[in-house]
Amino acid sequence: MNSRVGEDQVRPQTAAGDVSAGRVPLPGRRDAVRNYYRILEAARDVLGESGTDASMEEIAARAGVGVGTLYRRFTNKEALIDELLRLAMEEAQAAAEQALSRTDGHGLEELLRTQGALFARHARYAHLLLQRRPDEASTRGIRAAIEELTARALAAGTLNPDVTFEDVMALTWAMRGLVEATAEADPGDSWQRFLDIHLAGMRVPARPPATCQGTG
Questions:
Q1: C-alpha to C-alpha distance for 20 and 187, rounded to whole angstroms
Q2: Packing angle between helix 107-121 and helix 77-100, nearest 10 degrees?
Q3: Which of 115, 208, 209, 102 shows the shortest CA–CA distance to 158?
Q4: What confidence tens digit (pLDDT) does each residue in 86-121 have?
Q5: Where are the domains of the chain?
Q6: Residue 213, Cβ neighbours under 10 Å: how many?
Q7: Which sign does the torsion angle of CA 88, 141, 98, 33 carry?
Q8: Residue 143 reports pLDDT greater than 90
Q9: Distance from C-alpha of 124 to C-alpha of 182, rounded to nearest angstrom
């Protein structure tokens, strides 16, 4: 994603499957909001490329802002990574809430696909986020949403009755691990194929068509 945001934008464009955090933590001037998003996108790029060796100076240069502007918003690199984690958790929460709004038994699949897209979006610097402890309330909320959506899918008959909440969580962890393991190799949509295969095995098997037996 281009690290620069257009003059008339105050929120970043999102790719298909992305869920915008929807909160601008900066009051006031348009240029301050624009710089905030430039910094975040630059940080994602630079941290993905350099990991813990990434410097604040390099992030500022990539964002097209002065180093002073960067330090006024984030006192150090750790604070910047903390903000990326907070936003990632907000994205995950928004995805869970959107999936919970469905009542047709397909909310679980929607959430799993959105989670996969989020994992892929943050894959290159995910190891830095995982070194931090996310907000416990957010983590519990997302876990509760998955449990509720699993129960709904089972009740609606869109999920094999042998599937458990623990199975769904294991699939989530496996999908995240795949995305992280293949991040440097440009995995493309490999996580989608991985998810498709597992979802196919978790659905209720289709009943074979009834056959008419002739009378002899």
A1: 23
A2: 160
A3: 102
A4: 999 999 999 999 999 999 999 999 999 999 999 988
A5: 79-202
A6: 6
A7: negative
A8: yes
A9: 9
